[in-house]
C-alpha cells in the first residue's frame, strides 16, 4: 500500500535555530520533512511578518525557506499583508507553489 505524509505548518516568523525546545529553525523543519515518506507540505499563513528580521527584510527572508522545504500550496494569513499588497505580489512571484484563498 502506498503511503504519504501530510505536513502542515503556519505562523512561522523566525528561521534561526534556537537551543531551546520547541524552536529548531528552518534547518530542523527541513530535516523533519525530508525524513517523512512522500511528504505533502501545506502552509496556512503568516510567514512574512512579524519578526525582527522582517522589519528589515519585509518577509523576503522567508521565501527561500518556503521553497526549500517543498511547500506544495499555501494560503494567506493576515500578517502576510503587513507590507502591502504590491510587496506581497512581488514576493509571490518568487514562490514555487500556488497560493489559495486566505485563512
UniProtKB/TrEMBL annotation:
Gene Ontology terms describing biological process: nucleotide catabolic process
InterPro entries documented for this protein: 5_nucleotidase/apyrase (IPR006179), Metallo-depent_PP-like (IPR029052)
GO terms, molecular function: hydrolase activity
Name under which the protein is recorded: Calcineurin-like phosphoesterase domain-containing protein
Organism listed in the record: Lottia gigantea
Amino acid at each position: 500500500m502506498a503511503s504519504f505524509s501530510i505536513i502542515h505548518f503556519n505562523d512561522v516568523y523566525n528561521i534561526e535555530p534556537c537551543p531551546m525546545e520547541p524552536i529548531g529553525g528552518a534547518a530542523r523543519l527541513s530535516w523533519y520533512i525530508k525524513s517523512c515518506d512522500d511528504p505533502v507540505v501545506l502552509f496556512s499563513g503568516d510567514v512574512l511578518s512579524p519578526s525582527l528580521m522582517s522589519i528589515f527584510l519585509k518577509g523576503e527572508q522567508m521565501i527561500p525557506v518556503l521553497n526549500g522545504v517543498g511547500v506544495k500550496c499555501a494560503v494567506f494569513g493576515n500578517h502576510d499583508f503587513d507590507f502591502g499588497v504590491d510587496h506581497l505580489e512581488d514576493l509571490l512571484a518568487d514562490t514555487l507553489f500556488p497560493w489559495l484563498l486566505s485563512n
